[in-house]
Amino acid sequence: xxxxxxxxxxxxxxxxxxxxxxxxxxxxxxxxxxxxxxxxxxxxxxxxxxxxxxxxxxxxxxxxxxxxxxxxxxxxxxxxxxxxxxxxxxxxxxxxxxxxxxxxxxxxxxxxxxxxxxxxxxxxxxxxxxxxxxxxxxxxxxxxxxxxxxxxxxxxxxxxxxxxxxxxxxxxxxxxxxxxxxxxxxxxxxxxxxxxxxxxxxxxxxxxxxxxxxxxxxxxxxxxxxxxxxxxxxxxxxxxxxxxxxxxxxxxxxxxxxxxxxxxxxxxxxxxxxxxxxxxxxxxxxxxxxxxxxxxxxxxxxxxxxxxxxxxxxxxxxxxxxxxxxxxxxxxxxxxxxxxxxxxxxxxxxxxxxxxxxxxxxxxxxxxxxxxxxxxxxxxxxxxxxxxxxxxxxxxxxxxxxxxxxxxxxxxxxxxxxxxxxxxxxxxxxxxxxxxxxxxxxxxxxxxxxxxxxxxxxxxxxxxxxxxxxxxxxxxxxxxxxxxxxxxxxxxxxxxxxxxxxxxxxxxxxxxxxxxxxxxxxxxxxxxxxxxxxxxxxxxxxxxxxxxxxxxxxxxxxxxxxxxxxxxxxxxxxxxxxxxxxxxxxxxxxxxxxxxxxxxxxxxxxxxxxxxxxxxxxxxxxxxxxxxxxxxxxxxxxxxxxxxxxxxxxxxxxxxxxxxxxxxxxxxxxxxxxxxxxxxxxxxxxxxxxxxxxxxxxxxxxxxxxxxxxxxxxxxxxxxxxxxxxxxxxxxxxxxxxxxxxxxxxxxxxxxxxxxxxxxxxxxxxxxxxxxxxxxxxxxxxxxxxxxxxxxxxxxxxxxxxxxxxxxxxxxx
Amino acid sequence: xxxxxxxxxxxxxxxxxxxxxxxxxxxxxxxxxxxxxxxxxxxxxxxxxxxxxxxxxxxxxxxxxxxxxxxxxxxxxxxxxxxxxxxxxxxxxxxxxxxxxxxxxxxxxxxxxxxxxxxxxxxxxxxxxxxxxxxxxxxxxxxxxxxxxxxxxxxxxxx
Lengths: 813, 159
Description:
The structure holds two protein chains of two kinds.
Chain A: H1 13-17, E1 33-39, E2 45-51, H2 53-57, E3 61-66, E4 90-91, E5 97-103, H3 106-113, E6 117-122, H4 129-134, E7 149-157, H5 160-166, E8 169-177, E9 189-194, E10 200-204, H6 209-219, E11 227-231, H7 246-258, E12 262-265, H8 268-274, E13 281-289, E14 295-305, H9 313-322, H10 324-327, E15 333-340, H11 355-372, H12 377-384, E16 390-391, E17 397-398, H13 403-413, H14 416-419, E18 427-437, E19 452-458, E20 464-468, H15 477-489, E21 496-500, H16 517-544, E22 551-554, E23 557-560, E24 563-569, H17 570-581, E25 585-590, E26 610-621, E27 628-638, H18 645-664, E28 670-672, E29 681-683, E30 701-707, H19 729-741, E31 744-745, E32 747-748, H20 752-763, E33 769-770, E34 779-780, E35 784-785, E36 811-812
Parallel strand pairs in A: 1-12, 7-35, 8-32, 10-11, 14-15, 20-21, 27-30, 31-33
Antiparallel strand pairs in A: 1-5, 2-4, 2-6, 3-5, 7-15, 8-13, 9-10, 9-12, 13-14, 16-17, 18-26, 19-20, 19-25, 22-23, 23-24, 26-27, 28-29, 34-36
Helix pairs in contact in A: 9-11, 11-19, 15-16, 16-17, 18-19
Chain B: E1 6-13, E2 16-23, H1 28-35, E3 54-57, E4 60-63, E5 76-78, H2 91-98, H3 108-121, H4 127-133, H5 145-158
Parallel strand pairs in B: 1-5
Antiparallel strand pairs in B: 1-2, 3-4, 3-5
Helix pairs in contact in B: 2-5
């Protein structure tokens, strides 16, 4: 291999260091007018009166839009079509857009927002999941499983209660994982215009142009064929640009009405309110084990604070319970998840999507179990690592598993056995593991089509253009596309031009989410390139008089391996093929393997391949102040194969960074304004100064180990790296704090105040921990019973799925 | 309706004498992006919190969202577009591109000019000096480590 596996400048590297990457707000089109959104000042209210006449009359204002202009709802999931581009008659969180002003410049639009007259009738505000569980009315939405419960999930794989009765020990713990936001440095921005044919074009900082395309067609009631969505390179995504957004639909409508380009760029404060970030999750974990550490059963309950809209929330709920079985062997497993609506910005997918929260609890609980059983935490995990090529209790088909080697590599690098429980008071090390998907096995809307498509156009110059709907969000997807094509065709990466994320020009790729792009687009790219190589080899074979099977493509040449002098250039091979077969263009596509799960809810969790990570964090904790410092992190990641090790390392280190932010400081939290003001529920600190995120001064040294055993399902053996390495870090920090000072912090962020409180509790003879005390009553429905494979199950449930309605008898936990 | 008075200034931008007139309330960031079409300089907050808009003003790194355009008369501004010279990228640009210091690339212009100011003043900074100099620039992608390495690798290139 000449390209794959070698550290290399990414294909778009030059553009990024010269400032030539065109982000959405960098598009400057003639005659552009500018859009600003008026956002609700109350968290939950009926709109009694909305008068835009003064704003519309303001000089320089071209158009004012309200909810009346957007009667059709939309949403990312087919089951949660609960958003309107502008509020129709109700606002559901402080920041919900109510009206849009389009004016000659941003300042004028901003001035005119003050001239929109809105009268609200406040409704009861639901600030916490407890409040949403306690009161069914008023409902934040008229749909959902009951009252203000959006989604209830209850799944049982085998008899967990029987497993617990047979266990030597059953451990029960509650944990809380605070919400956090993506904080991409680029604020969301979009530009819409009619093209010269009158059709709609939207350029947007989106991770999912295909889904935005569908949402626009629906919300604007337009033929999708007359809408073109172009994803501009995202200035960071992390999941925060994966939903179709209000502002995208608003500028699209305005551009159609005004027939001139309309631009919007959100302020940083607005980005905090757009959110779609990490769900705050309260969880209860019960795990039964034998004396030697084997897990006999696990029972997980999660309660997700969803915020005001559905977003990806149904999927997020399932994800809180999906991947526990993928890391460790769990013969009996029960999962119950509940997502409630609250009057806060909607939560959605952030790096790790729904899995970091429960992973945090599971890995801390394993640390507690190891200590109680007097087994080293690394050794315990080595004993229970899931076997490769396994069908788990919840019917996830797991292929290669590099977790054992991850644990061995990271413990060796960190000199674990010499340090764990052996460092002086105030210093400690903690270990945790994880796994993640290499792409969701099912699309967001049900269909049988490929998840990723690649088209190649071969030019007589020897240049190749690769078209794919994949979206470059900084992770390097353009580089993966180009590298796969160039490797197969034996040309230089710079000979390949990537055209990506454009619904008019590129075949569908579902988007940059669920760590799916490298595996799915990569496989599609290889298939397209192999088909092109086959045509070229056929033509070259005839021309060179050498057998096709002996031809090799390398260094921009096609030659006979047994007689390297018999050769032609790659460009000559393209010409020969074009002469022989006509214009050379090929396609490739990728569809994930069929899932083994056939029960309701089994669509979340399956993936073509799972990545694995193990991390060791070193922590220094000052017992006087609770101040915590992380000087070093060791992390090993099972990548299958690193296509470009420079980019892979960047994803690992970036994950560690973002994980430390969540572990130590980042919080998306809310407060009530004083009663003499509106009493509204507002973001505590919607600014980059006060929403703390790690700076250069906070970042520890990170030692990255890549475990490379090619996975047969990945392109050149590659698995994902964008999200998995984040997951083990938060629990490893918590475990390191325990090793340092002997107190358990069972929630994130782990702050000095919490450490001091836990130390005070310990000194007072109370449990040496800080964390949630209880898990509330949730009206769980009867569990769907799915016998695991080893009990003769076939992936279907043995009882019908039921959803409880208010007043109906339900099983209380 | 706002009818802001226009301000006209003469300054040097990336070595070129430049005259520009703009609404008086505009920040240097807005003048660069909107009136001079130098979109390489980015914005992440427009409140001086993220460092994405950093440029060099008379050789010193400043946050262009906190500088009034009107205050730049007669001064010299260097943006990311001005780092390459004689058809060659600045060593920092080469190492940032080669070593993974730019992922999404949005914070990169701010990091590059800030790092250039550091190396102009301290040709051989320690890792701690690099950390300190870049502590006002936020990056959400890299975890900073590859940025540190790129700055250190550029020292060799400059020498």
